[in-house]
Write a structure and sequence with these properties.
six-stranded antiparallel sheet, four-stranded antiparallel sheet, globular, 13 helices, Chitinase A, domain 3, Triger factor/SurA peptide-binding fold
């Protein structure tokens, strides 16, 4: 349940893994009231229909089917024929891009080892409060092979190495650029700020833009119908923020791309925008919060959290589930601190607690972060039914972030990542233009 954060060598943040959202389902207070590896053309059998040909490599219909299913299970989009039809073209375009990225990585002799893939899966499992085996079972239930997930992860790792190797040394952030950002932030200190998440889908030509526009509209429809924004961003966004679920933190409207800021100023908290066309892409924006001035960023709030568990097998009978539900509510009503919680949970059969962990709000999955924010110090979150049983978090301590201007180093890192991401998108655009891609 507790997410982890990673840093890039040299102090630069360049997130390399597009985390998979395997979110738990939050239950009501009464609980029961509830790699696809590219194949050479001569390796493809007649039994595999062809979805696309990317230079000399084939994307089979099976490859595409596996990726569509992966998108479904990881984004929360219901797996219905209508939804599959809606997102199929967008998924295929994303898959074509990945093949181009892998081909470029091979040209530069960049490879990803099985050990690196295993490590990445372990990190995903930790963020999801699951084991790798549980993730494999979760995927299996959705008809997805582990190799399909490994293919996506491997492409992300390899492409980020391509971008870093080819362009990392070319990116420079001047002191005057940092000065300009600080000056603008000081001038806008009393202006509204917005807590924003973004999805960026790029296009290469006006004709391509029309096709992309239709795809982005379908994504907006899915999210407005309930698909989690952060999960869709991880799967489809081409911005550097994709690895963080699209989260770009608190910004002023002037910090957003031309045209995007004007839309944001007319949005309300919780709204998801229609696709916003820019020079070479479409943005989808979610406004998660807004405030006036340079107040504290709640994403930087510090928490001390204790995880407690009332074990329950996945196939437990209704009577056992009801008993655990009553015990969870009784536990919540009696706990006033983590010290009390540690002793109280042991009164229930096999009940356990973990040592308190120090976390930053921004490291938590969005649903967990929202649940924790609603609970005072000494309180317990609503029960969650997971594979392990009934889980809750006890808030041992909470230290709100102090409002402050970003440091020069933080601005430097942000500008560096933005420029590197832009160069990566341009390089992928060039690869698309030079490629021979045939859709079937």
């Amino acid at each position: 349940m507790l997410a982890s954060a990673g840093t890039h060598a040299g102090g630069r943040f360049f997130r390399s893994i597009r985390g998979v959202a395997l979110a738990c389902i939050f239950m009501s207070a009464s609980l029961p009231a509830g790699a696809a590896i590219a194949q050479d053309a001569n390796q493809t059998t007649d039994s595999q229909a062809i979805a696309a040909i990317v230079n000399d490599q084939i994307i089979s219909s099976y490859d595409l089917e596996q990726r569509v299913k992966l998108v479904m299970v990881s984004s929360g989009i219901p797996n219905t024929p209508e939804n599959v039809s809606r997102i199929r073209d967008q998924v295929l375009r994303s898959l074509v891009d990945e093949y181009l990225q892998r081909q470029e990585a091979r040209r530069l002799n960049i490879s990803v080892t099985q050990e690196e893939l295993d490590t990445a899966l372990e990190r995903i499992a930790q963020r999801s409060n699951m084991t790798v085996e549980q993730i494999e079972e979760f995927l299996k239930e959705g008809g997805v092979s582990r190799s399909a997930l490994e293919a996506q992860i491997g492409s992300d790792i390899a492409w980020n190495r391509v971008v870093q190797q080819q362009f990392g040394g070319l990116v420079t952030v001047g002191q005057n650029e940092i000065d300009e950002v600080l000056r603008r932030l000081e001038e806008e200190a009393d202006q509204p700020r917005y807590l924003i998440s973004e999805i960026l889908i790029t296009f290469d030509s006006p004709t391509h833009a029309e096709e992309i526009a239709a795809g982005t509209k379908r994504l907006v429809e899915q999210m407005r119908e309930g698909a989690p924004f952060e999960a869709v961003a991880r799967q489809f966004s081409q911005s550097a923020s994709a690895a963080n679920g699209g989260d770009i933190g608190w910004v002023h409207a002037s910090q957003l791309p031309d045209g995007v800021g004007d839309v944001v100023t007319n949005m309300q908290t919780g709204m998801i925008s229609d696709p916003i066309r820019t020079v070479n892409g479409f943005y989808i924006i979610e406004v998660r919060a807004m405030q006036t001035g340079t107040g504290a960023d709640p994403m930087r709030d510090q928490y001390s959290l204790m995880q407690v568990l009332l074990p329950l097998t996945p196939d437990a009978e209704a009577a056992a589930v009801n008993r655990r539900a009553r015990e969870a509510q009784e536990f919540r009503s009696q706990v006033t601190s983590c010290e009390v919680a540690a002793g109280q949970i042991r009164k229930y059969l096999s009940g356990t607690s973990s040592p308190p962990q120090q976390v930053i709000a921004g490291q938590l999955e969005p649903r967990v972060r929202q649940a924790v924010a609603r609970v005072p110090v000494g309180g317990v979150t609503e029960p969650i039914r997971s594979e392990r049983g009934v889980e809750m978090l006890v808030v041992c301590a909470h230290r709100p972030a102090q409002g402050e201007m970003p440091t020069r180093e933080q601005i430097d890192d942000t500008l560096y990542e933005q420029q590197l991401s832009m160069m990566g998108r341009r390089h992928l655009r060039d690869l698309r233009r030079d490629a021979v891609v045939v859709y079937r």
